[in-house]
Amino acid sequence: MSATTGNDIFDVNPYEANAGLSVLESEVLWEYAKLAQHIKLLTVRTKELSEQPDQKLVARLRVLERKMGLVLTLFKASVWGVINEQEAVKVSGQYADNAI
């Protein structure tokens, strides 16, 4: 196998000139080499993301967090409104019964 850099593996089959391999074998080994390089690149990118957060993603999540806070506040207000409305109906029903 010749010395190739990580990006050369996608352009040049390093197993092609090996006399001990058939064409099919060299193609299969090349596909495995490309797959291994993809996994290495994925590992590097995953490590980069885990070491420092993606600033665009953090900003978008902060916007979402504020919106969810607003939704929670509105939900609590709605529940409070329904509870107060039910109590008002009970109280007005008691006054109606007492008036008769």
UniProtKB/TrEMBL annotation:
Cellular component terms per the entry's GO annotation: DASH complex; microtubule; mitotic spindle
Localisation: Chromosome, Centromere, Kinetochore; Cytoplasm, Cytoskeleton, Spindle; Nucleus
Matches recorded under InterPro entries: DASH_Dad3 (IPR013965)
Cell cycle recorded as keyword: yes
GO biological process terms on file: attachment of spindle microtubules to kinetochore; cell division
Domain of life, per lineage: Eukaryota
GO molecular function: microtubule plus-end binding
Main location: nucleus
UniProt entry keywords in alphabetical sequence: Cell cycle, Cell division, Centromere, Chromosome, Chromosome partition, Cytoplasm, Cytoskeleton, Kinetochore, Microtubule, Mitosis, Nucleus
Family listed: Belongs to the DASH complex DAD3 family.
Listed name of the protein: DASH complex subunit DAD3
